[in-house]
Amino acid sequence: MSELTGQRAGDILDRIRDCRVVVLGDVMLDEFVWGDVTRISPEAPVPVVDVRRESIHLGGAANVLANLISLGARSTIIGVIGDDAGGERLRENLNTLGTGLDNLIVDKARPSTLKTRIIAHNQLVVRADRERRSPVSAEIEDKIIAQVKDALTNASAFVVSDYDKGAITPRILAEVLPFAYQRLPVLVDPKLRNFSFYRPATLITPNHHEALRVTNTEDDSNDGLHKAAKSIQERLNCDAVLITCGDRGMMLLKKDDQPAYVKTAAREVYDVTGAGDTVIATLAAGLAAGASLIEAATLANQAAGIVVGKVGTATADADELRSAFIRSAAIKSV
Q1: What single DSSP character describes residue 136?
Q2: How far is CA 178 from the centre of its chain?
Q3: Does 334 score more than 50 pLDDT?
Q4: Helices (H), 113-162
Q5: Cβ atoms 81, 87 nearer than 8 A
Q6: Where are the alpha helices (DSSP H) in 237-317?
Q7: How far is Cα 276 from Cα 79, in angstroms, rounded to an integer?
Q8: Please, which pLDDT band fits residue 240 given cuts at 50, 70 and 90?
Q9: pLDDT at 267
Q10: What contacts 242, CB < 8 A, 6 or more positions away?
Q11: Residues 26, 30, 107, 277: which is the catalytic one?
Q12: 25: left (phi over 0), alpha (psi -120 to 50) or beta
């Protein structure tokens, strides 16, 4: 495994600006209510949060898009929103990225997905979800399939960001994955419900909990995760599996290859919200720019280390990544 140098990372980041990545998935909003706790409610043994401010961020597949834009890639998103205030807020927030919205499909039969997190003293107190997780209708499936195939005609990579909210169905996967795989790198951030349908694909990126559950094992050791990755690879016949392991970093397994381990780059972890979105966005951008799988994984690991050091749904930009590699090289030279 060759080490990703700062110079090589910089070259990849420069080339990302010429790449176009298409994202398909469950778009959502992450709403944060920030405050302080100084007392317990007399009505029930729960904290009373004195609200100080509120913020809202793109979540799910929309956060994958935000990370790609932050890295400098030219990207577009295909997803489903409701005919409601949440959908309008999603459009407004996407507009701030400067990306086209023609590929957002309005489904009047379902609400836009909104996750509200109440945070006090940088700690999550409670989360409230407004969503509908049933699969989209056949009519919406038709629209998604047509838009994906059209968008992929001039793309450099394709990401499926499945949050199990209904926008990704077996029929959609069966139609778009073979079409995409013939043309460009295909990356899938999976969920268990659709796991058997993520084929063909270049790279599948489960976290270690998902990898163990889908392979019906509890062995969380490196050897256990290696076996889980190999099982997933054989089941889906994908080119590679990358398992994210939290503070243990990542494990990458290619076909007929030994696993490669990438140690975590995080210095301090404040919030892991959206870290998986950052990982798959950086992987996709890296592969689109011509990076090898291990180079893209190393780049993604650094990006994840940046975002978990921030509170709330966050992104890592190209300048932060350049600085991270410079800082890493400086530490090694001491």
Answers
A1: P
A2: 21
A3: no
A4: 138-151
A5: yes
A6: 275-288, 293-307
A7: 18
A8: very high
A9: 55
A10: 203, 204, 205, 250, 251, 252, 253, 283, 293, 297
A11: 277
A12: left
